[in-house]
Amino acid sequence: MMNGICAMGKVDVLGTEYTIEVKKYDEDESFDKNSFCGYCDEEMKKIVLCDMTTYPGFDGESEEKARISERQTLRHEMVHAFFNESGLSYSSNAYSRGWAKNEEMVDWIAIQGPKIFKAWQEVGAV
Ligand SMILES: [Zn+2]
Q1: Residue 106 C-alpha to ligand 1 middle, in angstroms?
Q2: Distance from the alpha carbon of residue 79 to the mean position of ligand 1, in angstroms
Q3: Does any domain span residue 77?
Q4: Strands in 14-111 per DSSP E
Q5: Which residues are 51's β-sheet partners?
Q6: Cα 124 to averaged position of ligand 1 atoms, centre (Å)
Q7: How many angstroms separate the alpha carbon of residue 60 from the centre of ligand 1?
Q8: Please, is 8 exposed, middle or buried when counting C-beta atoms within 10 Å of its C-beta (0-12, 13-18, 19+)?
Q9: 47 CA to centre of ligand 1 in angstroms
Q10: Is 46 within the bounds of a domain?
Q11: I need a surface site. Which of 8, 43, 80, 121 has the fewest CB within 10 A?
Q12: Which residues pair with 46 in a beta bridge?
């Protein structure tokens, strides 16, 4: 995979090892059932990403765009993993959905995270 994510990687999430799997759309029914292009399985400690070149509706897009989308999804799912391993999971339930399950907030961190990290690096804060 060009600039892609390791097909079978591992990541340390606050001391808990999560596996990262990249599957084709047809290899995991969750993609179709839930309209997911990735998910974080808290119980199985794994993150599953769809190979976006196999995702319906993504055909015609460049491989580069597919890989960018996969990396963004990976960051998003890793934020879920960090919340989960912090104990910020179902017990965060408030009204309707808990704040730690708030997709908008998770997206915000997944999108802004690299920029924040770069800024931290620039000022020697990490
Ligand atoms: Zn999410």
Answers
A1: 6
A2: 8
A3: yes
A4: 16-23, 38-41, 46-50
A5: none
A6: 30
A7: 25
A8: exposed
A9: 11
A10: yes
A11: 43
A12: 19, 41
Q: Within a domain: residue 14?
A: yes
Question: How far is ligand 1, taken at its centre, from the CA of residue 12, in Å?
Answer: 19
- The CA 62 to ligand 1 mean position distance, Å, reads 24
pLDDT at 17: 92
CA 76 to ligand 1 center in whole angstroms = 6
Whole-number pLDDT of residue 2? 41
Q: 67-103: per-residue pLDDT in tens?
A: 999 999 988 998 889 888 887 777 665 656 677 888 8
| Structural domain range at position 68 | 8-122
Tell me how far the alpha carbon of residue 66 lies from the centroid of ligand 1, in angstroms. 18
Residue 2 inside a domain? The answer is no
Backbone angles phi, psi at 27, to 5 degrees: -85, -10
The total domain count for the chain is 1
pLDDT at 1 over 50: no
Task: Report how far residue 105's alpha carbon sits from residue 120's, in angstroms, rounded to the nearest whole number.
Answer: 20
